[in-house]
Amino acid sequence: MGEVIVVTSGKGGVGKTTATANIGAGLALRGYKVALVDADIGLRNLDVVLGLENRIVYDLVDVAHGHCRLKQALIKDKRFEGLYLLPAAQTKDKTAVKPEQMREICLQLSEEFDYVIIDCPAGIEQGFRNAIAGAEKAIVITTPEVSAVRDADRVIGLLEAADLREPKLVINRLRPKMVRQGNMMNIEDIIDILAVDLLGVIPEDEKIIITTNRGDPVIQDERSPSGEAFRNITRRILGESVPLMDLERNGNLFSRLRRMVGLG
Amino acid sequence: MAMDSGHVMADPRAVSTGDNQTVLIQRTLRSGQSIFYPGNVVVLGDVNPGAQVTATGDVIVVGALRGTVHAGAGGNEAAVVIAFRLEPTQLRIANYVSRPPSGVIPAGQPEVARIRDGVITIEAFSAAGERQGSVTRVAPCNLEANSEVGCEK
Prior knowledge:
The complex is a heterodimer. Chain A is an alpha/beta fold. Chain A has helices at 16-29, 46-49, 60-64, 70-73, 99-112, 126-133, 146-161, 176-180, 187-194, 206-214, 225-237, 253-260; strands spanning 3-8, 34-38, 75-76, 83-86, 115-119, 137-142, 168-174, 197-203. Chain A contains twelve helices and eight strands. In chain A, strands 3-4-2-5-1-6-7-8 form an eight-stranded mixed beta sheet, with helices on both faces. In chain A, helix 1 (16-29) crosses helix 11 and helix 5 runs parallel beside helix 6. Chain A is globular and about 65 Å long. Chain B has a seven-stranded mixed beta sheet. A six-stranded mixed beta sheet of chain B has the order 3-5-7-9-12-13, with no helix packed on it. Chains A and B meet through helix 7 of A and loops of B.
């Protein structure tokens, strides 16, 4: 039986879909069989981020309503051995699927796959309830913004009420320079409020915008800091103990020198 | 007491200031969660921003109080709010409403909020001080006039 993990945040635009795609690709690169489920019915994105949009024939709603078999709807990602996508429907809305149907689909997938990762829609309404219905574990994504942290707190409360205890936190789009200048919440501030375990910190990185638009997970990029952060997150999900990466090391030579002499 | 997705709701008709009952909340209240209790409330955990605690009696938070708190709801002006870290979004006692002024550095020690001479005042909390009558950390400020908690001079 595989593990069913939901990636959620409450607030939109913090990086749920990007994180789902990269963590999924990362686990597949490690040799695991992974199914990604796009639960954002009506606003599907995960297929685009993975570059699989033009291969969709059947979707999650078709499976839920018995219009096709689960295997028919799963799209195999040819770049990553073992990575599959169950896409969302684009022409329906969140009410097209019930939590029981999601639970059943997750159960079926977990029999076949080592990891089932669900990309949750923004919000806390039916789409959220559908997405968490079949999950056993949760990853909460936030950015270092007060509004995103507030929504993450709300979502953690709802997850706990739904018996998804001890969710893991990913802080996305951190800008070390702004944190140093005191203009951005730091990791400690966020952990202080949310009081959950940290799974990883992803620095703000232009590379991730480029790769996401290209439909190519950044985790393959050996040189980008966000790719490294996602590789570390993948290893932590697999139970390895990996220290947080040095977020400062990617400055240019001049800024590093300035920091060394205490001017930064 | 009914529990519905993190919402603790006691009977709102039971509001009375003479109620000495106390409810113990053994978890952190997160954004969107709220407690109403006709009596005293003790929270063993934090009250995060966006969470709300309402009690007809005292409210004690063994942790950080960052959300909205209303002690003495129903009109008990003798009610107090005590927290290890008193940094509320908004603090109400009886019919007084106050919010912290911007830019105040957290005290880093337990504090108590109570009505003194018609204004909500914040003081350092010590058990001895409570019995003897008070160690004042901040000057009292007129609440209804400037609506502020802990206005330090």
